[in-house]
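worker-03 picked up job from queue 'complexes'. Input manifest follows; two sequence lines, order preserved.
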Amino acid sequence: MKCKQESNSRMRAVVGFVAISVLGLGGVAIGDFGTQSAMASDNKIVSGHACMSLNRYSQTDRSNPEFIENTGNLQTYMCPVVRDDPNGNLDFVRVRTYDNNSHHGDPVMCTVWAVSVDGTSSNASSVQTTTGGLETLEFALNGFIEFDYGHYVIECSMGTGDQIVSYRTNED
Amino acid sequence: MKAIAQISFFSLVCFGGALAGALISDSGTPHSANARHLAGSESQLEIATLREDVARLRVILERDRQRVDDAVAEDLEDYEEPDLEEMIARDRDIAERRAAAITAAAEREAVDPDWAPAVELQIAEGLAAHGPSGATLISTVCKTTLCIAEIEHPPGDDGTGHVNWLVVFGLSHGFFMRHEPESGAGARTVAYLARDGHSLPRAEPSSAG
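worker-03 finished. Artifact:
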């Protein structure tokens, strides 16, 4: 009888110990997962709706959540890029566009700019669509320099019916 | 540091769990007087040991927490933002070293006769057709993988108006520096342009570190 009671007591102690250990391990795992999630947040996808036409705001259709569309003639858009690290570098920049090639011969041409703090120096790389329809433009950033505490912006020129779906940036 | 704190916390929780389990087991079932006395002595000993462990782990945890706080404070000092003048000076240094590196590379390069003259003409024609009003081409030199073009803005134009020089010149990669007007000369923009499929050389590391 005594032996059975002691056995029960030990069992309860073991169960209590194991339960709290599992909770503790869960806390460690959640902490690690949270850290990894924070690291992955450097990769940013922004809707094309963040892009602004230079001077013809009314000639842009923003009604569709999927994209913005140029409803006027050839015009230029500026798309802001969030920079997390003021001393870091861009890993990649991609712009997802729709080139309405059937309607107009102009390709969608985008330029990514890195601008110095006082604006006197800039670095630029451009790329344009090669086919009609949905296309992801990826910039070649070899030799691209980023100014400390400067900013980035993407400039896109688009013909009638061309669209910007989204753009994606990642910092090293 | 965060991991150390987490492990310390985890250990503290484990010992706390063991302590709680021991307390639960102690009060859970009736014993005979003798057995209760023996078990009680053992439990008290265990509890005393566990209390010592918990106290020791609390000290470790507090020490680790202090280390984490110190590390965070140190990181914040490292990330302290310089003032505007310092930022501008730093960026100018980056730009000037970059320009010097490209100029040096251009001086070393031979001229590709199949590419350079055609692109020099393309730059001149692009500026005339799509460049800002009144801007003139002071010089343009193309070699094998890059070109350097110097543009002067007309009087009264400080050159700050936005121009997509890549579109103007029909090239894909460029680095641009704007210079303020000097005596007898207007504001200038110097365009360092890479041939498609090539990249501009990067600046040498700063001697200042």
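worker-03 released lock.
The longest helix of chain A spans residues 2-40.
Chain A has two domains: 1-41, 43-171.
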